[in-house]
Specification:
Number of domains: 4
Strand content: 15-25%
Shape: globular
Mean pLDDT: 93
Low-confidence stretches: 1-24
Distance between the termini: 88 Å
Oligomer: single chain
Number of helices: 14
Amino acid sequence: MASKFVSTKLILCLVLGLLAVNAGAQVTFNGKKAAIDNLTGTWLISVPKSVYGTNYNVQIALDEDVTSCLINGEDVAETGSYTFRQVKAGASYELELVKGGNTVHGTIQFTYWPVIQIYGSGEFVKRPYDQGTVVINYPDSTYKEPIISRVRWAGSSTAEPDRQKHNFHLKFYNEDGTKKNMSFFGLRSDFHWRLDAGQIDFSRVRNRVAKDMWAEFSTPPYYVDWQTKKVRNYVRGEFVEVFLNDKYMGIYCLNEHMDRQQLKLKQYDYENEVFHGGLWKPMKWTNTTIFDNLPSVNSHHKNWDEFYVKYPNIDDVNPTNFKTLYQAVKFAKTSSDQEFADSAAYYFDIPVFRDYYLFVIMLQGIDNIGKNLYYACYDVALDKRLTIAVWDMDCTQGQFYDNWDSNYHHSWVGPQRNIRNLELSHHNVFHRLDEIDPSFHGLATERYWELRKTIFHPDSIVRRYKDYFNDMKICGADKREITRWSGGYDLGGHELNFTSETQYLRYWWTYHISYLDNTVFKPYPNGDLDFDRNVDINDVTLLIDYILTEDVGTINIARADVNGDHIININDVVDMIDVMLNAAGS
């Protein structure tokens, strides 16, 4: 009975959505329908990028009760076609449409990004999901039928009612109420998608740039070799333009969802009621979410303090499993230094934690330490290590999480600030790894210098932004975004300007990398194998043992090739001794 009721509601919602869509669908252009912005009268049509810079001839079909249609003064009702001259960003074509005695005026513009139209009974809220429909207009295809959907705002502080440009969760369904898996832009197939607004980000693309970088350099999770399918501890996405109830909402990134499927965690055994894969997300920064507090656990609740279980879904499996996470927090909080040094690798995926430590320092990610990340375990019955998946990195790289008054370009996200010794040191796992094991920061430092000439070069990072900004500019989305949101509440009343943001990012990254070079990730001297920043007899002993057995634990192998001939042998020992003698003599 319940499923029948849900199905009926969904079908009713589809009908309502169709009425909303068809209200503005009096014209099709080569089989495409324009997305109409009632705020500005803009009719936006998604076309292939190859159309730009050309004269675009379209066949025009009108509803039967349309008595007149003029484009730039030319009557297309009789000819049934029109040629748009020199399609480009910013080009507008005047439209006058007469239907049923009513005259509609508008301007036609083009984009080569996909356009997503969301329809519902209202503006939606954070919870619960509301019924709606979604229309996805692709550049290289004709009109697609609306998708039955459930929609709500996404995020925590970004979902507050006073915010203007909200993120969205989208879930797609078939007419019978079953989940409708769909794939977009070569991304994974799923029924659950997220539209990220870049709400307070003056670039609109920080989150995407950060995840692109992480995907390129980060170490895969510890269980990657146990999987035949690609494991991703990040989400991919593509930029689109979004409308909500025929109002232009601007630039969004349509992203995959972070879940068991993305991370390829082992599924829960429903038949035997055995836990395997686990996924948890800290929703707010608390002492518990920085692994420094042990409140009691109620396994019938979806949250332990501000840790929320994401897999298995508590609606499917109750009681849930917080035991693995609890044990990791307990170990981080209560173990002695020796116990922590000996057993941290039993609880934590150290290579991924090290890369995340490096990345958060790189991005000045103060909002990604006690929250805005995921902890995952592949199979709690097999291996209890927690690994990390990145999430929501729009408040990084000089962007504070509030733009009002003095918070705009806040000193806390200034380029010359060492969060290693500040916010990051509050996280008990990172703090203890850094304090107890010199190789943790040491290997992060060597990784930093390995990437300094490529991914971590300021020019390389700023180039990513320029490429995204250039794409926005060419398709015209930049001006539409600025017109809609510049000076708005989310931006603290400040101007949205991608040119000045490029200049700010170049300034920030240039000074930030220079600061990291000379302070946080200052290079180790050649011959320093034990990460103590001295070259002494201990390093000589380590090098000899390494040459003879290669079984000496973790050493700074990047500094073992003292003479730089790309071979580690007795000659490096001789040169290391020379370094020591020269240092003593000076």
